[in-house]
From TrEMBL:
<protein>
    <submittedName>
        <fullName>PPK2 family polyphosphate:nucleotide phosphotransferase</fullName>
    </submittedName>
</protein>
<dbReference type="Pfam" id="PF03976">
    <property type="entry name" value="PPK2"/>
</dbReference>
<dbReference type="InterPro" id="IPR027417">
    <property type="entry name" value="P-loop_NTPase"/>
</dbReference>
<feature type="domain" description="Polyphosphate kinase-2-related">
    <location>
        <begin position="65"/>
        <end position="257"/>
    </location>
</feature>
<dbReference type="InterPro" id="IPR022300">
    <property type="entry name" value="PPK2-rel_1"/>
</dbReference>
<dbReference type="InterPro" id="IPR022488">
    <property type="entry name" value="PPK2-related"/>
</dbReference>
Length: 281
């Protein structure tokens, strides 16, 4: 088959120096195959992802300490749930630790913003998935002044220090910021309002939040400028095309897991002897 990626997805989507205002949300960076091929490739790439994830799980079961953490951020309707369902859904659930972070509870509010996050960092062998994350504490919180600026300003450094600590403990961190256009969001919200089976995804606040779009763009820019590190890089995924964002995140995870260089664990027993004993049993 012809080469469908013109460059590695990790290069095509790296956030280095990127201006949020310049993002073409309908682009498909690095991929020239188009929708039909992109969609057709997903199951096959999902199978590879599944094998790699099983190696990570086996590694954890045999004393290894590596883990992978996927952090998903994006405005409402950007497709975070679709990534969980269609990308993470292709791997064995016993190796996945999925956490979604909504409005903090009273108990969570009584603690430091990283308290609830720390409790959910993946354990050895796990693929952790954060559907929203500590970044909400410099996004929605910043846009709506939920804490004083003097407090949220410090959070960028606190987040970097936290992520460094997590990375140093053997976690490969992959941060994905999904971007849809304001128009595409409108279409997706309308679709939610036109389908009774989608009402549960809708919140009236989704509409009032649209008025804050420029403030959110600014808050996203600050994140990309201040928390895009070597140990926890940001990838910017244009998300108007769901087939593309799902394929792109699949490839990012394949890259992260391949980078661990894991193999199947060696047998901790004599295979030939066990076969002989089995025959005799
Ligand atoms: P959803 O992901 O659509 O279920 O919505 C979760 C909601 O929780 C979003 O509106 C987030 O902005 C909100 N949320 C998440 N984390 C925080 C936070 N730390 N403070 C305030 N709101 C938050
Ligand atoms: Mg929502």
């Amino acid at each position: 088959m012809a080469k469908l990626w013109t460059e590695p997805v990790t290069t095509a989507l790296r956030a280095d120096g990127l201006r949020v205002a310049d993002i073409d949300t309908s682009a498909t960076p690095g991929f020239i195959g188009g929708k039909q091929l992109g969609k057709a490739m997903l199951p096959e790439r999902g199978e590879l992802l599944s094998v790699l994830q099983e190696k990570l799980f086996a590694h954890g079961r045999t004393g290894g300490d590596r883990k992978v953490l996927l952090i998903l951020q994006g405005m409402d309707t950007a497709g975070k749930g679709g990534i969980v369902r269609h990308v993470i859904g292709s791997v064995d659930p016993q190796g996945v630790d999925h956490a979604s972070f909504g409005v903090p509870t009273e108990e969570e509010k009584a603690h430091d913003f990283l308290w609830r996050i720390r409790k959910r960092v993946p354990t050895p062998g796990q693929l952790g998935v954060f559907d929203r994350s500590h970044y909400e504490d410099v996004l929605v919180v910043r846009v709506h002044d939920l804490v004083p600026q003097s407090e949220w300003e410090q959070r960028y450094d606190q987040i970097n220090a936290f992520e460094k600590e997590v990375a140093d403990a053997g976690t490969t961190i992959v941060k994905v910021a999904m971007f849809v256009s304001l128009d595409e969001q409108k279409r997706r919200l309308r679709a939610r309002l036109e389908r009774p089976d989608k009402y549960w995804k809708f919140s009236p606040a989704d509409i009032t939040e649209r008025a804050f779009w420029p403030e959110y763009q600014k808050a996203y820019q600050a994140i990309l400028d201040r928390t895009n590190t070597d140990y926890a890089p940001w990838y910017v995924v244009p998300a108007d095309h769901k087939w593309y964002s799902r394929l792109a995140v699949t490839e990012l995870l394949i890259d992260a897991l391949t980078g661990l260089g894991l193999d199947w664990p060696k047998a901790g027993f004599d295979v030939a002897e066990q076969l002989r004993l089995l025959d005799q049993s």
